[in-house]
Amino acid sequence: MDYIKRDLERKFLHMSSAFKTVMVTGARQVGKSTMLKHLAEGQNRTYVTMDDTQLRNFARTEPKLFLQTFQPPILIDEVQKAPELFEEIKILCDNSDERGQFWLTGSQSKKLVKKAGDSLAGRICILKMYSLSAREKLGVEPADELEFSLKSLTARQKLFPANNIVTTFDNIWRGGLPDVQEKDEEQLGEYFNSYIETYLMRDAVDDYGIADTEAFRRFLRACAAFAGQLVNYNDIGSSAGVSGVTAKDWVRILQSMGIVFLLEPYASNELKRLAKTPKLYFCDTGFCAYLSSWTSRSVLMNGAASGHYYENYVISELLRNYAYGKSKVNLNFYRDSKMKEIDLIIEENGVLHPVEIKKSASPDRIALKAFSVLKSSERQAGTGAVICMSDTVLPLDENNLILPSCII
Prior knowledge:
alpha/beta, Rossmann fold, 2 domains, 7-stranded mixed sheet
């Protein structure tokens, strides 16, 4: 499979020019090592991986000697397996003004991020990588960031193929892990099964001390069944045969692994909320579909859960988009005591953009009915959107747009 250019490349190189150390974290097999090795081509940069048992033992027992042997500029893969290196990296950073000396990758872990942050405070930039977005698969790279204006979105649409439900659900069902893109249905199932056994179960035991791996497997499937819903730890735990307390701990572990993310409810002094718990989504819809036994694209597309998967897909695509962008953005949802709900609120530069997500190709103004609640917020309410399967960007009213999901 040919290399697929990643949207994170721009941000990574920009940070490498400003920080002495840059680390890319993320779930297993999302392409962290592949991207950094690609960016290192043509550079005089040493590459070492802590997957190598001898090198790992060397790094752990003799970190100073290790970095005398393998000198910067260096790319250290799976650095979480040799945390002893961080203190020595700190010393080398302090003895040089060179930027981008150390490129690191590590499987996503709160323990790793804390260790790196504590040891290398002020010297390290930590970036998060997700599996492939639909845009990365297409090889489309808009010059401008996503902006909620008719003019900008109309220009953006010209770069993308037309919206197509079959293509969309192939992206949803297959997901974004690079290694699955050319696999057939049978191969895909075996890949995800191996992914669980080879990576997730091993990490659950080795990194998080989970002893009951069978219960953890059940818990993975239970989380997939509750994707897109308000988190109820007792219900998820009951489905997996574990307590609500254990379920809460295990959701945090899946967050640390980069498997799921929690979308928090929006709140302000003026807006009263009913929902006090977050919504659970999967970072990769393909893995979620596998866990729920959706064995083909067509079965998923025509199934009762298709709307939930479409919502998870849109939100995870936006999560990638903003994670790799220049601007800091907050993503939340809204639900109040009168059961008014907004699927997503994008807060950028103090402006709130309400978003509804509909699998429909022709949504109507009813989809906007909850947007008016934002007028009570102390924040400015900006242009809203209904992200859907429409063919083209269109105004829905004077303040809101129809936005095809294929261009996000």
